């Protein structure tokens, strides 16, 4: 009753605010008939991610989306999904709030239970993705982003071992000394956002930039979901007399995120009725990730006539305390050493040409990582004559009571190494035709030694202590060859068409190799054609693709929410993506995005665990789970010279199958809406951001295991956040 009263008051207040704001917008619009019209020149966005050289997106033979600073500034940016959502072919959601994001590009990444896999994530040219394809966003300051570039599918020169594509997050430059600001934000569910940026040109050669951020939320609509992070970064830029530049950054991040339990079908219905998630029956009530990260990056750029040399060196060190399903991971520190030695050579080969090449090397070293039992648990005694047969007794774990670690389960030392070579020739035989031909070759090695003293038994739902320690050594290597051939042809100043063929390999993750040492690397081969248009008051991107994945690594959800991994023989992914923007008058922009995805197993025998025995079931012809056939988004932006700004976006995520067997679909959600209202006057800017404007009760993910049990991850109800920014 109190909740309904609150919703009624909120809706009335919000409706009144919208009407007042709308009247102000149109009043201001009518008073400025002399405002500048839209520019007569066609505008294209520059991208560097697909080819490692700055080119207009219209010239690149690949599907690219660039999210610019204007869009980023319109979002509250508590999470990277705030800016990326709505991008066609890209599915992004947060099951846990905070920095957590579940990211899928053209079906790649869906096997990840948390984090991001099969997609290369880069920050300012430095990979945030481990050699085994696992990516995290815990040490990316979302308040210090200039733009985000998304390249979909195989073919990016950055994308070592990533079949889904590449996302590059580009932070604000140290040489930009005009963007100093202080930002304060406060919102529902305990949301806090504090950020400052101070830059200074010390002299003609030296610039410094200091940024700091604090983000937090208690998400009190559900249990165990506090989030808190602090980030501090110092950048230095040096311009040498020779024309060379040297940019260096040192940053520190601390990120704490509690991960709430999943819901049963009945508990999800309770959430839909109340908007809250409490006292669930989830076995693992106290999962979380508590990390600290040091990050160092230095990059040099020097021209020698037609040759540009761009070496980069980076180091980061991270540790975490990570309670998850069945065990508590305690990693005292992983050290990452890496270099990227890149060059670009301008020459003449059938016209103006550019040769880009280089080598990559990286080592991820972990010593003394440990797994522990949960110390505090509720258990129930199971009759020895029950389903577990001759066991003398079984104390099943019903739920955790804290995230305190107990007895040691295992220790592990690991070293993951990557050596890569990349080369691409770009030729322009005519003013209209551009051809890219290139490849990457990467060798990845996993050297892992684990000593296990016990384990969590998924069958009995209890811990099992071994009579003697069990040592497992894994030393395996993968060679990945990723060629690409693409061409772009300009039909006129507005339109261009492109075609491309590209291949990329995908290695198993470290945990997947340990659970199934027979896993092979997957290979994705993509054939794609597209149309791009850039005009003064509209733009359009259209792409059609066909991707064949052999030996795709598939997650099989066994009873008890246990994920096992195996190779599927072949998966066929066919899709169509469309995105566009059009100016409506002088101050409005209408955007629309649509993706059609038809992803099916061509050859797949799913191994289902029945009474402890793996039994094959033919899933050939079935659709892959979680990815909807239809995904679309509509947006409307308003930007008036008087200082009024607004943005509204509605996203639809269509229905999808919950399992590989295609037994049942979840409906997804329709027109999940976000809203921004803002006003800027001189150095002052005020904005109100509202997510899930109409307070829809939906699930970010629904899964069904091989026994038919369904689990739900609830989406956040409506939240509002008020931000104030002072620029100086």
From TrEMBL:
GO CC annotations, alphabetized: cell outer membrane
Subcellular localization(s) per the UniProt record: Cell outer membrane
Transmembrane segments: none
Presence of keyword Membrane: yes
One Pfam family it belongs to: Plug
Main location (coarse class): membrane
GO molecular function: siderophore uptake transmembrane transporter activity
Family per similarity comment: Belongs to the TonB-dependent receptor family.
Name of protein: TonB-dependent receptor
